[in-house]
Amino acid sequence: SPNVGLLTLFYGMIGGAGVGIAYGCPIAVVGKWFPDRRGLAVGLTLAGFGASALVVAPVMNAVIASQGPLRTFTIMGVVFLAVMVLAALPMRFPPQGGKVAASKGASEPSVVDMDRGRMVCTPTFWALWGVYTIGCLAGLMAIGIAAPFGQEVANLSAGLSAAAVSVFAVFNGVGRPLFGWLTDRLTPRYAATLSFALILLAALLLWRAGGSPIAYFVGFSVLWLNLGGWLAIAPAATATLFGTQHYAKNYGLVFTAYGVGAILGNAMSGLLRDLTSSYVAVFPPVLALAGVGLLVGLVGLRRPVLEGK
């Protein structure tokens, strides 16, 4: 439709809600099939989610070029509907009492099962929600300013900055299974601590030496890696800290941190750029927030204690 309001309603709001619903389903399923390797399983699943743009984007561009944008919505809508229905057919939780994959040396099993109402009453939930917000905020700020930072601060050409962003996207995809695996091995608490330590160092590097092309590539690679990492740490942490019985509902609430981080991150980066006329000013606040996230993660990401135990 040429109507901007309808486009916002159907593509933006309804389409966005559909993505959010579909996003959580495979995460919940693989987490139950691989309880001892949940982080890695979720990370690999989300790597597929991220890599889908490599396939869909060129197809969409080709269809738009031949059919126009409005007809493309109809064509791709039908294709997505068919693919989603077929992909959903084999998606099942493991049967009660059935065997699921296990491995030695994985993180210890969850000792609590909390519903959403009990979860939000724990300090652990708010610690997880807070660190997830900070992790996403830092990563999404980096995604938003990576190309212009390369041109304005690191003095790279537009073509080289665009190529760098493509490389950064690979780091974003790698971060999902990598930090999923680290969450299994180290527990969510220490995986989060490692992530914030890396974000802090990357922000410091870009603040003090962002004009160096090497610092630019290293710093933004680390930030994109950690954004992908938080998309694996948070769902694995939700199951580990609050159990799997109510996981889908619980993670749906935890995932709102991603939206808040996106809104704040884009708003902060734009405001700081306007106030200072430099993208370098974005990184001192990121550095400070990473320090806060590191401390909150260390102190707050512990399993809740059930009353009476």
Concise structural overview:
This protein is mainly alpha-helical and 309 residues long. It is built from eleven helices and no strands. It is globular, with a radius of gyration of 20 Å.
CATH superfamily of the largest domain: MFS general substrate transporter like domains
Oligomer: single chain
CATH architecture of the largest domain: Up-down Bundle
CATH class of the largest domain: Mainly Alpha
Say how many strands there are: 0
The fold-level CATH name of the largest domain is: Growth Hormone, Chain: A
H/E series, N to C? HHHHHHHHHHH
List the domain count as a whole number. 2
Q: Main beta sheet: strand number and arrangement?
A: none
Category from helices, strands and their pairing: mainly alpha
Number of helices: 11
Give the integer mean of the pLDDT values: 86
- Give the radius of gyration: 20 Å
Q: Which runs of at least 5 residues are low in confidence (pLDDT < 50)?
A: 103-110
Overall geometry:
globular
Query: What is the helix fraction of residues, given as a range?
Result: over 70%
Distance between the termini: 58 Å
Please indicate the percent range of residues in DSSP E strands (runs of 2 or more). under 5%
Structure description:
The protein has helices at 4-33, 38-67, 69-88, 116-119, 123-152, 158-186, 188-209, 213-242, 247-254, 256-276, 283-300. The protein is mostly helical and 309 residues long. The chain has 2 domains: 4-88, no CATH class; 116-300, Growth Hormone, Chain: A (Up-down Bundle). The longest helix is centred in the first third of the chain and has 30 residues, at 4-33. 37% of the residues are buried.
